[in-house]
Amino acid sequence: MKIFVSILLVMASLFASDATIDVVKKADSLPTIAVEDSSVSYDQTFKSKFFKSVIADLNVLSIFNVDRNHRNVNFDATSVLVENKNMNYVLRYKLFEGDGRSLNVELKLISNNGVVYNKNYKVNNTNTYMFVSHTIAYDINKFMGEPPVEWMKRKVIFARMVSPQKSELVISDYTLTYQHIVVKGGFNVFPKWANKEQSAFYYSSLDENKPTLKHVDIKTGKSKVIKSSDGMMICSDVNNDGSKLLLTMAPKGQPDIYLYDVNTKATKALTNYGGIDVSGQFLESDKVVFVSDRLGYPNIFSLNMNTGAVEQVVYYGKSNAACSVFGKYIVYKARESSDAFGSNTFNLHLVSTETDFIRRLTAVGVNEFPRFSVDGDAIIFIKNYEGQSSIGVIRLNHNKNYLFPLQYGKVQSMDW
Q1: Cα gap 383→324, rounded to integer Å
Q2: pTM to 2 decimals?
Q3: Element (H or E) spanning 37, and its range?
Q4: How far apart are CA 220 and CA 235, in angstroms?
Q5: Is 2-21+151-415 CATH 2.40.128.130?
Q6: Residue 119 falls in which region: left (phi positive, over 0), alpha (psi -120 to 50) or beta
Q7: Distance between CA 341 and CA 304 in Å, rounded?
Q8: Measured distance CA(77)–CA(244) in Å, rounded
C-alpha cells in the first residue's frame, strides 16, 4: 500500500478544471515591436509557421508589446512599412534556402529607421526552424540588455502516456512545436537529463522484473542499465556536474531517498523513515529537499546529508506532493480544495528558504510537476484539461504565464 501511495505522490494526478492561459495585462510602458517578413523561399504554410513562432517567442520574452500582424516587405527597403512607423522596434527577417536545402535566416532589428542589430542564422533541416526562432528571441533579449533566457534554447524531455501502461519518451522544444520520440514501445516514465549539455538522459523502465533505471546516450543511441530495485526506482535529480543522483527506491517495502555516485556506483541511503520519502532535490552541496508524509500528509522537508537532521520547509498547504529547487527558492504543488465528488484545485507556490514569503504562481485547475529553468528565470509545469495536456511556462520576474498544448496523449513527467 505504501508503494502505491508513493507512486501516486511522485506521479501526481493528471486531471484539471481549466487549461486557459493565465491572463496578465500588458504593461503600457513596454516598448512596441512589429515583425516584417521578407522571405524569398518556402511556401506560405512554412512562412506562416515561422512567423508565428517568432511572434510567440517575442511574446514570451515579456519585454515588448508585440504586434501580431503578418506583413511582407522587401528586405532591403530603406524604411519600415507605414503600418509600423510608430513602432519602437521592427524585426525584419528573410528566409531563403541555401546549399544542401539548408534553412538560412537573415535578420535585422530596426529602430528610428536605422538598423541597430543584425545577424544571420543557418540550420541544415527546416524541421528545426523553431530553434532558430528561439535563438533569435534569445539574441534580441540579450541585445536589449535583459537577464539571460538560456532556457529558451534548451530542450524539454517528457513522458507521454498514449494508452494504459504504454508511454513514449519525447524530446521537444519548450513550446512543444518540435517533437522527437526517443523511446517507445513500453512503459517508460520519469525522464531526467543526465547533464547540463543534455547529451544523455535517465528514465525508469517498468517493463522489467523490477523497476529499472536506464541511461541513454543521445549521440550514440546506446542504452545501459544503471540500477534496479523492488517497488520503486526513480531518478528525481542530478547534481550540477552529473556525478551524483538522487534516487527514490523501496528495496525494503518503504520508499526512501538514496544518493547514487555515478563514478563509483555506490548507493547511500539518506532517509530511513517508516513512511513515505520521495522526490529528492539537491538544495545545496550538503542538503536535499524531499516530499514526506511525516506530518500525516505530504509536505516538503529538507535533509542535511552530513548530520541527518530533517526540517520542515513548507508550512502552507495540506497536500504538497511535488517540488523543484533553484538556489534558495523552492516551487511546490499544493492542494487548495477538497471535493470528493468533483475536481480539486492544485496550485504552484514559490517559497524562499531564507524568509516566510509565499507567492502563489497559478490560480485555477491542477498545476503540477514544476521544474525551474537552469537560470531560475522561469518555471515549466504540467497542466491538463478535458483529456488534453499542456506545458506551461511561468516568467517569474515578469509575472506572466504561457501555455502550450500537447496534440495527443498526456504528459506524465518531464525535465528541462
Answers
A1: 16
A2: 0.86
A3: strand 32-37
A4: 22
A5: no
A6: beta
A7: 40
A8: 55
| Residues 374, 282: Cα–Cα separation, whole Å | 13
Q: Which helix (H) or strand (E) holds 193?
A: strand 188-193
Cell numbers placing 242: 552529473
Ordered DSSP codes for 131-183: HHHHHHHHHHHHHTTPPP-GGGGS-EEEEEEEETTEEEEEEE-TTS-SEEEEE
pLDDT per position as a tens digit, 80-135: 999 999 999 999 999 999 998 999 999 999 999 899 999 999 999 999 999 999 99
CB distance 354 to 338 below 8 Å: no
- Select from 3.40.50.1820, 2.60.40.3360, 3.40.50.10070, 3.20.20.70 the CATH code of 32-146: 3.40.50.10070
| Structural domain boundaries in the chain | 2-21+151-415, 32-146
Calculate what percentage of the chain has a pLDDT beyond 90.
71
Say if CB 271 and CB 285 are below 8 A apart.
no
At residue 205, what are phi and psi to the nearest 5 degrees? -100, 125
378 contact partners, CB below 8 Å, separation of at least 6: 149, 151, 372, 393, 394, 395, 396
Report the distance separating Cα 181 and Cα 158, nearest Å: 10
Q: Where does residue 273 rank: exposed (0-12), middle (13-18), buried (19+ CB within 10 A)?
A: middle
